[in-house]
Every structure is written in C-alpha cells, then in structure tokens.
Inverse folding.
C-alpha cells in the first residue's frame, strides 16, 4: 500500500477540487493519507476532512511560520485535541530560520510545547526544520533527555549532521519530491544514509511537485514518483521500497490501524 504521510488537503489550493484530488490519489494507488494541521485554528477543517474519509487521518499542531499567531499554545491544548481518534500525529511543528516569519524564540517555545504533547500522548512529533540544524539538534537532544518521544523529520532537506544526531535519537525521516530535483544531490546523499527501517514518503502537496510534475500544483497522486526516486537512491526494487516505507509508517504512526 502506498501511503502519503504528509498532505495539506485543507489548503486553499484545493478549495475548488478537493474531492477530485482525493479520487485521483485513490486511482493512483494511494491507499491512505495523513492530512496535516498548519495551525490549531485550522484543526476543525483538518479534522473534518479526516472524519469524512475512511482512508484519511490527520494531525494537530501549529507550523513555525504561524507560531507568532499562537504564542500561548500549550501542550495541554494539543493533548486535548489529540484525543480525537483520527489524530495520529502532533504538528506540523519545528523551526524555520529561512523565512523567519515568527520570532525564533517564539518558534522554539511553541515547538517545545508540541514535544511535550508528543511525549504525553505517545503520538509522533511531525517536525519541520529549515536553516536551523544546530538549534534543532540541540532542542531535540535536550528534550529527549527529559523523556523519550517519537519524532519524524518530515520532508528532510537538512544536512548530514542533523540527520546523524536525529537518527541517534531514534528519529524517522520522510522523503519528498525534493529528492527528484536535479540540484538536490546533497539531499540524495543524506537519504542514501538514512536508517532503512525509518524512512517514509510524502508529497507535502500542494507544494514541491516531483519531477516530472515539477512546476505544477502537487497532489497525492504524484507520490509514486517519490517512491521511485527513493528506490533508485537506496538500490531497492519498487516492491521493497513500498514494503519498507509502509512498515516504517505503521511503526511510527501506530494509532493508525494497519490493514
């Protein structure tokens, strides 16, 4: 089964044809999807999508870009919202020092609240990291020392040092369409060295459409191109790549029942 671990189906880019996007995903062999919450205020819309479809689950959280709009977010709020049965992850959360759309100290504060919620619920923290490798690694190591929690570094594009330090903490990694980009040799080198039992795949749609769809709005139906590139990078057959990523996903997102 192909599973898209990171879609953004509540995004305005899908407002007019969300149902058709979901149907095209199913026709392309995408058996399940996880639609991601970008801010707690969006959670009712995200949850409604998951509740309307038997093959879609969701997360709850606030992206680092939006941390400035939710500075008082507490772990308790996230824990309460995560009680809904179709919530399988905490996030998207993390640090983005490239755009700096929220103050860095606020990003870190909100990020740590998500980690506490992940630790308390047992659900994985879905982590975004951009241009923040050293601070990200430091926070992950400090928080793991306070108590273990499940961790996914989604759409991994950071350097080998963060990957190594996160892997030592037991992190999972997800591979996106970026792996297919011509200029992404450094990303492919990191993917080649990831723990083989902790790799999953995603589209991050509507963003980051893979080659040969680059330049178009991304959709879950394009996930097979990501899987094919992962298989090429790792030297796996397509069947093996699908089996590896499916097993890794169900180990990470263990609230989602395996078929």
């Amino acid at each position: 089964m192909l599973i898209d671990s990171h879609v953004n189906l509540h995004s305005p880019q899908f407002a007019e044809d969300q149902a058709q996007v979901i149907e095209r995903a199913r026709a392309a062999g995408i058996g399940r999807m996880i639609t991601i919450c970008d801010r707690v205020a969006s959670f009712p819309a995200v949850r409604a999508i998951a509740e309307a479809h038997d093959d879609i689950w969701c997360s709850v959280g606030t992206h680092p870009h939006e941390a400035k709009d939710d500075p008082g977010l507490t772990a308790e709020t996230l824990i309460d919202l995560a009680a809904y049965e179709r919530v399988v992850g905490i996030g998207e959360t993390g640090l983005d020092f490239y755009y700096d759309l929220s103050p860095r100290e606020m990003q870190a504060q909100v990020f740590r609240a998500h980690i506490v919620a992940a630790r308390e619920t047992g659900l994985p923290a879905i982590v975004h990291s951009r241009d923040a490798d050293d601070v990200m690694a430091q926070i992950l190591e400090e928080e793991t020392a306070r108590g273990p929690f499940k961790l996914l570094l989604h759409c991994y594009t950071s350097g080998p040092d963060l990957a190594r330090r996160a892997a030592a903490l037991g992190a999972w990694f997800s591979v996106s369409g970026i792996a297919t980009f011509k200029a992404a040799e450094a990303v492919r080198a990191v993917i080649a060295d990831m723990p083989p039992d902790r790799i999953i795949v995603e589209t991050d749609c509507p963003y980051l459409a893979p080659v040969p769809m680059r330049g178009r709005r991304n959709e879950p139906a394009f996930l097979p191109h990501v899987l094919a590139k992962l298989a090429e990078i790792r030297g796996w057959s397509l069947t093996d790549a699908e089996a590896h990523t499916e097993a890794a996903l169900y180990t990470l997102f263990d609230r989602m029942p395996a078929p």
About this structure: Residues 104-121 form the longest helix (18 residues). The two ends are 9 Å apart (CA to CA).
